[in-house]
């Protein structure tokens, strides 16, 4: 038997050593014993980080939906696969069994095929957190189409860019979405986007809110009647282990968003194995991850990881504050949730509200608490541990990225002793390295540096869609033969890792990655703006918030300037989405620049964070005089 389910610390160390000593036979055993393949691989791993090229399970054939659905039908046909909890607590929850989910996926897969979608085609999914979203992912996977989910909070421009970047032929959207007491339109956003997307042949529309929408003849259709008419059987299309399963965009420190490409076989093995261990999932548990499927956490740990293990995965449409701040705990009590996985920003927001919201609910079902998306600060960790976990449910602080596909550094609950703010130990098969500025690996403990990974793992992204060169440059050029994460980390005296945050120009706001470059581009498109620089500053709920330093072409009167602030945020909302709005905007006459004309963000970050006692070395600045002015007027 392979070590699929780790149960104590000694076993962790033993299995970890095995996974590092002989990664190929380790992953081969896991892959062989716990998944169904149409054809086995002839080699487990081919890799060369200098190219970069990574291939797991060479020539193996499979369909991931046979692993997530078909194989459970005999043993778990009537078990709930997806437990849908709607935005409005008065609307009834839906328990979708494995058998029903299989049927729904087959129906939708048939509809996609009827619309000409074939293996390898890209389908953009722009849906709120309703069951059709999960069904749409799986329906694509069923027929070998590549899904590209765009979070339904992105603007029409951001949506259009993503659709065009990977040439989607189809968009699956809904009329609108519910978020707390608000109803948002989505189809209208799609319509605007599609003016720029000439390659999209069809739009399938889910009815959710009943908004009035415009349907373009010959292009747009309501999905439900098509599903009703479709067959409940659809043969799964066989794909290669290295065929792409999905594309998911993530912000980079420069340039446009990167379409990270995840392939099928390795991704499946990695997300399933991490899910099983990091949440210690047992057969009758109810597991809930509050992320949106628009982000990687939802892909890996609402859909693929849980379903590959035959788990019951809660899908929540709403927000933590509606109808009141007790909503999360209401859902935990109602569905007797055993594993609960959320983001520090949500914890901090809830910790500001009365404890009554937590205490009036019975949370005794909880066994494991998870955290993801950004570093969890000590205060939030303790609040979570004491009030939600009642000091008995371990917190798994899980560090990973869109690029890594699945969790990389995390405690295993009831196995690894936890410590606030520490993601603790590398997961099985993961070989982290901390690097100093001279590209040397920092050996031993009590060191701090840049976090790299030395050896491939099955869930890693294989390329950036349409730009393999950028993939190499972004992840494999900073340190020879290592994957560079963009994060800093320290390793303490016992070998535990703490992630210290991004070391590049990506800012994590409420757990969402935002690159400064696209935000600055959006600001600079305003006709009154000459130049801008965006940095993050600490925010007690969002973790970080955005501070923009903006140079105007003409200084103008203060009333005009106040209006300009609104217009700049409006511009950002239109080009990216409301998540990228600036909390503070300061108009400046210049930006601190190095002699090579690079903006010295380090200084701006200090000013934005009100930490100006030591600005560090400013001797290489071209225009040191602007610093005083910026500090004098800082917000
Ligand atoms: C899964 C996800 C990735 C970036 C990552 C890091 C930050 C995620 C974290 C964490 C500290 C954790 N991050 N989890 N930082 N502790 N437990 O969030 O993917 O959206 O691509 O973000 O998020 O900075 O590099 P993604």
From TrEMBL:
<dbReference type="InterPro" id="IPR045851">
    <property type="entry name" value="AMP-bd_C_sf"/>
</dbReference>
<protein>
    <recommendedName>
        <fullName>Acetate--CoA ligase</fullName>
        <ecNumber>6.2.1.1</ecNumber>
    </recommendedName>
</protein>
<dbReference type="InterPro" id="IPR025110">
    <property type="entry name" value="AMP-bd_C"/>
</dbReference>
<dbReference type="GO" id="GO:0019427">
    <property type="term" value="P:acetyl-CoA biosynthetic process from acetate"/>
</dbReference>
<feature type="domain" description="AMP-binding enzyme C-terminal">
    <location>
        <begin position="519"/>
        <end position="598"/>
    </location>
</feature>
<feature type="domain" description="AMP-dependent synthetase/ligase">
    <location>
        <begin position="70"/>
        <end position="463"/>
    </location>
</feature>
<dbReference type="InterPro" id="IPR042099">
    <property type="entry name" value="ANL_N_sf"/>
</dbReference>
<dbReference type="GO" id="GO:0003987">
    <property type="term" value="F:acetate-CoA ligase activity"/>
</dbReference>
<dbReference type="Pfam" id="PF16177">
    <property type="entry name" value="ACAS_N"/>
</dbReference>
<dbReference type="Pfam" id="PF00501">
    <property type="entry name" value="AMP-binding"/>
</dbReference>
<feature type="domain" description="Acetyl-coenzyme A synthetase N-terminal">
    <location>
        <begin position="12"/>
        <end position="68"/>
    </location>
</feature>
<keyword id="KW-0007">Acetylation</keyword>
<comment type="similarity">
    <text>Belongs to the ATP-dependent AMP-binding enzyme family.</text>
</comment>
<dbReference type="InterPro" id="IPR011904">
    <property type="entry name" value="Ac_CoA_lig"/>
</dbReference>
<keyword id="KW-0436">Ligase</keyword>
<keyword id="KW-0067">ATP-binding</keyword>
<dbReference type="GO" id="GO:0005524">
    <property type="term" value="F:ATP binding"/>
</dbReference>
<dbReference type="InterPro" id="IPR020845">
    <property type="entry name" value="AMP-binding_CS"/>
</dbReference>
<dbReference type="GO" id="GO:0016208">
    <property type="term" value="F:AMP binding"/>
</dbReference>
<dbReference type="InterPro" id="IPR000873">
    <property type="entry name" value="AMP-dep_synth/lig_dom"/>
</dbReference>
<dbReference type="InterPro" id="IPR032387">
    <property type="entry name" value="ACAS_N"/>
</dbReference>
<keyword id="KW-0547">Nucleotide-binding</keyword>
<dbReference type="Pfam" id="PF13193">
    <property type="entry name" value="AMP-binding_C"/>
</dbReference>
């Amino acid at each position: 038997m392979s070590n699929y389910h780790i149960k104590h610390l000694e076993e962790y160390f033993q299995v970890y050593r095995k996974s590092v000593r002989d990664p190929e036979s380790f992953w081969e055993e896991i892959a062989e014993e716990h998944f169904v393949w149409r054809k086995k691989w002839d080699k487990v791993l081919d890799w060369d980080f200098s190219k970069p090229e990574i291939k797991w399970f060479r020539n193996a054939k499979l369909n991931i939906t046979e692993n997530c659905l078909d194989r459970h039908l005999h043993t778990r046909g009537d078990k709930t696969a997806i437990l849908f909890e709607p935005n409005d607590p008065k609307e009834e929850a839906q328990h979708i069994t494995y058998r029903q989910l299989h049927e729904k996926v087959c129906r939708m897969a048939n509809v996609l095929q009827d619309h000409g979608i074939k293996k390898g085609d890209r389908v953009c999914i722009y849906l709120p957190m309703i069951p059709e979203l999960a069904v749409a992912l799986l329906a694509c996977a069923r027929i070998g189409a590549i899904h590209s989910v765009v979070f339904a909070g992105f603007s029409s421009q951001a949506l259009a860019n993503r659709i065009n970047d990977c040439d989607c032929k189809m968009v699956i959207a809904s009329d609108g979405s519910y978020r707390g007491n608000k109803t948002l339109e989505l189809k209208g956003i799609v319509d605007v986007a599609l003016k720029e997307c000439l390659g999209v042949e069809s739009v399938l529309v889910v009815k959710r809110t009943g908004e009035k929408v415009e349907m373009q003849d010959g292009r747009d259709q309501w999905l439900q009647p098509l599903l009703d008419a479709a067959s409940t059987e659809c043969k799964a299309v066989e794909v290669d282990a290295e065929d792409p399963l999905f594309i998911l965009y993530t912000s980079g420190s420069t340039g446009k968003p990167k379409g990270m490409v995840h392939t099928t076989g390795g991704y499946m093995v990695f997300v399933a194995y991490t899910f099983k261990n990091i949440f210690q999932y047992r057969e009758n548990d109810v597991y809930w991850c509050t992320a949106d499927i628009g982000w990687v956490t939802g892909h890996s740990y609402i859909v693929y990881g849980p379903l590959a293990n035959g788990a019951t995965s809660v899908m929540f449409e709403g927000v933590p504050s509606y109808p009141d701040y007790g909503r999360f705990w209401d859902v935990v009590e109602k569905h007797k949730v055993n594993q609960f996985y959320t983001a520090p920003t949500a914890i901090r927001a809830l910790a500001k509200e009365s404890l009554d919201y937590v205490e009036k609910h019975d949370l005794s079902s909880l066994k494991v608490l998870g955290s993801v998306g950004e570093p969890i600060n000590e205060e939030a960790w303790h609040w979570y541990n004491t009030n939600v976990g009642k000091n008995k449910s371990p917190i798994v602080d899980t560090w990973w990225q869109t690029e890594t596909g699945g969790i990389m550094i995390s405690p295993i609950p009831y196995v690894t002793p936890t410590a606030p703010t520490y993601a603790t130990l590398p997961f099985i098969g993961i070989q982290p390295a901390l690097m100093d500025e001279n590209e040397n690996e920092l050996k031993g403990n009590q060191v701090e540096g840049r976090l790299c990974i030395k050896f491939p793992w099955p869930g890693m992204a294989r390329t950036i869609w349409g730009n393999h060169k950028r993939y190499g440059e972004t992840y494999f050029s900073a340190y020879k033969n290592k994957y560079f994460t963009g994060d800093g980390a320290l390793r303490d005296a016992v070998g535990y890792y703490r992630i210290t945050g991004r070391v590049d120009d990506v800012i994590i706001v409420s757990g969402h990655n935002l690159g400064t470059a696209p935000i600055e581009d959006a600001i600079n498109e305003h006709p009154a703006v000459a130049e801008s620089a965006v940095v993050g500053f600490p925010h007690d709920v969002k973790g970080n918030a955005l501070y923009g330093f903006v140079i105007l072409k003409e200084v103008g009167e203060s009333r005009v300037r106040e209006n300009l602030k609104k217009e700049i945020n409006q511009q950002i909302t239109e080009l990216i989405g409301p998540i990228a709005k600036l909390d503070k905007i300061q108009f400046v006459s210049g930006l601190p620049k190095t002699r090579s004309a690079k903006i010295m963000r380090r200084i701006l970050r200090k000013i934005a964070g009100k930490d100006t006692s030591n600005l560090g070395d400013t001797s290489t600045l071209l225009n040191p005089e602007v610093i005083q002015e910026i500090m004098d007027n800082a917000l």
